Automatic annotation (TrEMBL):
Family note: Belongs to the aldo/keto reductase family. Aldo/keto reductase 2 subfamily.
Range of residues in the leader sequence: none
Keywords: NADP
Domain spans labelled NADP-dependent oxidoreductase: 30-97
Presence of keyword Transmembrane helix: no
The organism's place on the tree of life at top rank: Eukaryota
Organism lineage: Eukaryota, Fungi, Dikarya, Basidiomycota, Agaricomycotina
Species: Lyophyllum shimeji (Hon-shimeji)
Parts of the chain that traverse the membrane: none
UniProt protein name: Aryl-alcohol dehydrogenase
SUPFAM superfamilies for this protein: NAD(P)-linked oxidoreductase
């Protein structure tokens, strides 16, 4: 019996994390999810993504091993960040997901 159980392999290459920078202790996925389209405030000129669709996208990204999301409070008049925060809170993974630092 091993003292430590090895960590299971990631489901996809998105889950092969790398250090964000030499001075950061954060390890992130090599593919960052852009969250500019998550939300429903810019529907008149950019389209929209409701909460249910946003959660499905975020679930697929996280299930593939992704943990690095590009957000900004200017995206979709802050609904992007609100949807992402609510999604992470509901799934209990706030400490496993990083936004753009």
């Amino acid at each position: 019996m091993a003292l430590f159980t090895p960590h299971p392999p990631p489901p996809t290459k998105v889950g092969i994390y790398r250090r964000l920078s030499a001075s950061a202790g954060v390890h992130v996925s090599p593919l960052q999810l852009g969250a500019m389209s998550i939300g429903d405030k810019w529907s008149s000129f950019m389209g929209s993504m409701d909460k249910e669709s946003s959660f499905k996208l975020l679930d697929a990204y996280f299930d593939a091993g992704g943990n690095f999301i590009d957000t900004a409070n200017s995206y979709q008049e802050e609904t992007s960040e609100m949807f992402i925060g609510e999604w992470a809170e509901k799934r209990g993974i706030r400490d496993q997901v990083h936004d753009q630092l």
